[in-house]
Amino acid sequence: MTKNSILLLTITLLLAACGQRSSENLNLNLDEVEIAKIQISPETMMDIIENLASPMEAAVLISSLNIPFSASNLPNPENLSTNTNPLEMAYRLGMLYTDLGYINLYENTGIAERFLTSIDHLTTELHIGQFFDLVTVKRLATSSSIDSLLYISINSFNYMGNSLRESDRGDQGALMITGAWIEGLYLATQAAIRNDSEHLKAMIVDQKLILNDLLLVLNFYNSETQVQNYITELESIMGIYDGVKINYEVGDPETVEKDGMLELVQPETSQLFMSDEVLDEITKITAEVRNAHLSSAQVTMKTQAK
Q: For residue 52, what are the domain limits?
């Protein structure tokens, strides 16, 4: 299968998994609402989680733009697989899954095994190892079956998250998604340093909407003191994203047919704008937040400081 075909398959999977952005479905202008005070039902929270971005999203875009692979942007997977508390292990698992997707899309099988071993360790410690078939993934990684490998990776990530939520460990599932998102934003911002792509900048800008969703999710699980630490990290990024402006434009009313009835609707479009200075600040704060999780010693100091 050609690389373009692989990207098309992956993008199709992402669209099927993500659907529409949940903050849009809630009809909330979250720039004007204090997120911590929003009351959301468990059912709505599950909808938000299911619509969050895939760990492959950033890697797919970077690869599609033919930006050269950069091993220097990847962490030492052994540092991320050290035993710590379950919340941090879930967060690191998300980071490693994003890295694995990035590696696989560039078919860098030579460095994939260390990441696979670390993921296997973390899934075992979190008791979700039944959703990660190390033997099969290794075989696919070395047989150039990249399309099958990406399909299995995306599905196993989703199964893990569902299992954590169904076993009353939704906070761990939320942090697994958060770690994946942080690593994806880190890879995207680092790629933007090397490539002046408007598509890449647009993807980074759009993360403001996903970040709103992540804050909603983590505030839903903020009874744990350590979850608040992760909320504080995301809020520091959101503080920079406040510099990204959203302009809403209301179009002319239109008549549409729905269920055999005519309805009058007024379309609304939105555009996001980001200056180079704001992009630089987002790149800087994302690296700071992400790098704080690269060793257990750094995480311990961060937690104690709060």
A: 3-305
